[in-house]
Model the fold of this input.
Amino acid sequence: MNPPSPLRLRIDLDALAANWRQLRALSGVDAGAAVKANGYGLGAKAVMDRLYAEGCRTAYVSNWQEAGALAGHPPDLRVKVLHGVDAGDLPAALSIDADPVLVSPEQVALWRAHGQGRRCDIMVDTGMNRLGLDWRGFCTEMFAGMDVDTVHSHLACADLPEHPLNGLQRDRFEAVVVALGIRGALANTAGIFLGHDYAFGHVRPGIGLYGGSAGLHQVVFPSARVIQCRDVPAGDSAGYGATWTAARDSRLAVLNIGYADGYLRGFSNTGAALIGGKRAPVVGRVSMDMIIIDITDTPAVAPGDWVDIAYNLAEAAAQSGISEYELLTGLGARYERVYA
Ligand SMILES: *Cc1c(COP(=O)(O)O)cnc(C)c1O
Done:
């Protein structure tokens, strides 16, 4: 007999779909979906199945292992591998139905020589200095005879709307798109919010699909179980380092979630569980496998109960100092992922 799952992650696929439709509508152009890192921790296959049903036809993954995990996808779904392809990837790349996003002259030469004429995308670096062919010295001749579908670039400061690099990157990218005369894609989620000037022909939202960026629907709902409840007198402390002291006689509950589950120590004395809609604050430090919450004001809790963890991404990020991205991708393997 399998032991019961200790933790649950409820994933609201209707909310995911609504977020995708909202971002596509806002961009005014065709929208793909970034499902790298196993769909930001939610499960790439389940995410992509649902978004495909909504009309999404492009999935972005990091590497060929992630592309392989989507194998068996519908033939009109285009899976794009953002890290491109190197010599070690070639056997896999030629056997998997996915397109590399070529990021360097070496990758372009490799795909030209060994890609069997297959389709590819290209990434141009317009100022982030991470991945891509440099925008200075960019020349279209190097792709002559190749089947290039889309040219990409990525914004370094899209979440800082006033940053001057946004406009610079946009203008540099526009020159590249015009020179190539093919579909361009620049915007991630935050880029979509910068306006239609940044949309070009296609957008690549990620975090917003999963409930990041204030204003979109929450998608991920973790819950944990109560192991023990205890009454502590005023003046007692709780947890490692005794960082919390009871200001009044209190009732505490110990939950089976900790930093090994991605509930990181930034939630020490800042996070909360939700009990009957009321916040039951985390008291003391987050441990590896446990947290302690204060249920003095929400006492109807007993060992074995399931308790929701407050995980609105914008609020949780503000409280914990952990980015929305890390809040999702850190969610560990101990959760049973329940798709609703
Ligand atoms: C991850 C990624 C995205 C999605 O970014 P979000 O900020 O999650 O919307 C888009 N484009 C590229 C190149 C990426 O690496």
Summary: Residues 34, 36, 82, 154, 188-190, 204-208 surround pyridoxal-5'-phosphate (CB under 6 Å). The chain has a mean pLDDT of 97. The radius of gyration is 23 Å. Residues 258 and 264 are 7 Å apart (CA to CA).
